[in-house]
Amino acid sequence: MSIWEYANPKRFMQTSGVLLPWVTGASLICLLVGLIWGFFFTPDADKFGSTVKIIYLHVPSAMMSISAWMMMLVASLIWLIRRHHVSALSAKAAAPVGLTFTVIGLVTGAIWGEPMWGTWWAWDPRLTSFLILALFYLGYLALWEAVEDKDTAADLTSVLCIVGSVFAFLSRYAVLFWNQGLHQGASLSMDKKEHVSDVYWLPLVVCIAGFVLLFVTLVLLRTRTEIRLRRLAALTTRERLA
Amino acid sequence: MRSLLRRDLWLAVRAGGGFGLGLAFFLLVAVIVPLGVGPEPATLAKIAPGILWVGALLSCLLSLDRIFALDFEDGSLDLLATSPMPMEAVVAIKSLAHWLVTGLPLVAVSPVLGLLLNLAPEGYIWLIVSLALGTPALSVIGAFGAALTVGLKRGGLLLSLLVLPLYMPTLIFGAEVVKRGAQGLAVGTPLALLAAITAGSLALLPFAAAAAIRVNLR
DSSP string spanning A151-217? Predict the structure, then answer.
């Protein structure tokens, strides 16, 4: 019994089919509990007022947008090294989910930033690096769409994912350097953890767990869809040849 | 290897190979910006480092799809792939040729454009140094992007989408060097980081680009 058994699409479909309702339910419960707890049963913070509640969407989605890219990186490496198709398909399946999380992070950040910092957008290091991350997701998705042959597309996007990871990491630190060199970046990028006391922390942890489970659910679902699409394509080709 | 370099250079210089196109574009950017933002010397001096670097980056981007696309179409890339030279070396040589016909001229004319944009006198030497150090990275990163998109019918727009995010660290450090240089501050840190990006890209990206080309030729 090793993890490589799941490289077999049939085996993957069986297990993920069993798992899917459970993770769906768990993520729903976590999200419902966390969000309702966070939105309605936590006090307003003194300096933030009720705007603090957007933290329950903002922080988990921002965390997941980075984790999704990491997952794509691992899946791409597995595809390049061991040529397991399920791995390549799961990387493809994770990309739109990750992009959506990044956009949610940016949009909720803008909505939060307007009352707090008095601006929708600032060239703060964190904001800038997330914008760059969103561009990387877009490029990755566009490359998947553009290449006709599926295996070629999987290879090329895997290479792009690896190189992109290095450059996304570089940009993160480049931006930090650039902004500290010019503006008073530190006063804008308030360290969010510092302000959080247990009252806010516990529902936040539940929300983060909910977002992780949601990501797992969506990726499983989308990978299953991709596998079915592949099967469909194979069937139609066979039909045409017969 | 030397003959491949000579061939690429000749192709670029002759027969409308795009030599001078990037240069003209760079020139136009530097001319257009004062028309757009107004001729006040103080404003221009403030934005000059950034504009010059953005202009250099865009004119580099303009000629990227030529690195492999023409050779892919007429089949010479297949010949190169079957030749005893490793694909990594082909990529490196082609990036070098691209740099010689686009990057190096940009470095050469940049002081003149700095003059047009009223760059502070202390900035010139750092403009030249940072462009000389940074444009090789632009060429080799671009070669990687071109290698990814070489098999596509309309790769141009996709190429820009893929390559621009990869260019950001280089742009940030390059413009920072000039900005600090123009203000008379110490430039050591960004310059070292810029050099590190160039050295790292030169060492590693030919392998990634060669892998992408092998996939595309499959």
Answer: HHHHHHHHHHHHHHHHHHHHHHHHHHHHHHHHS-HHHHS--HHHH--HHHHHHHHHHHHHHHHHHHH
Q: Do the Cβ atoms of B180 and B193 come closer than 8 Å?
A: no
Distance from CA of B202 to the nearest CA of A (A): 13
Comparing CB atoms, the residue among A139, A163, A178 nearest residue B172 is: A178
Query: Hey, CA dihedral for A227, B210, B155, A236, is it positive or negative?
Result: negative
Q: pLDDT digits over A89-141, tens only? A: 999 999 999 999 999 999 988 888 777 777 777 777 778 888 889 999 999 99
Residues 127-156 of B with CB under 8 A from A: 144, 148-149, 151-152, 155
In a domain, A237, yes or no: yes
Q: Is residue A199 part of a domain?
A: yes
Q: Give the domain extent around B34.
A: 2-217
Could you tell me the two tokens for B163? 């390559």
Query: What is the domain range of residue A97?
Result: 27-41+50-241
Flag if A167 and B218 touch (Cβ within 8 Å): no
Report the alpha-carbon distance of residue B117 to residue B185 in Å, rounded.
20
ipTM of the complex: 0.84
- Tally of structural domains, chain B: 1
How many distinct structural domains can be found in chain A?
A: 1
Q: What is the DSSP-derived secondary structure letter of residue A45? A: B
Q: Is residue A2 part of a domain?
A: no
Backbone angles phi, psi at A121, to 5 degrees: -140, 135
Q: Which residue on chain B is closest to A157 by alpha carbon? A: B148
Whole-prediction pTM:
0.86
The identity of residue A113, as a single letter, is G
Token duo for residue B29: 């950017």
Average pLDDT over residues B119-146: 90
- pLDDT digits over B135-167, tens only? 999 999 999 999 998 878 777 788 888 999 899
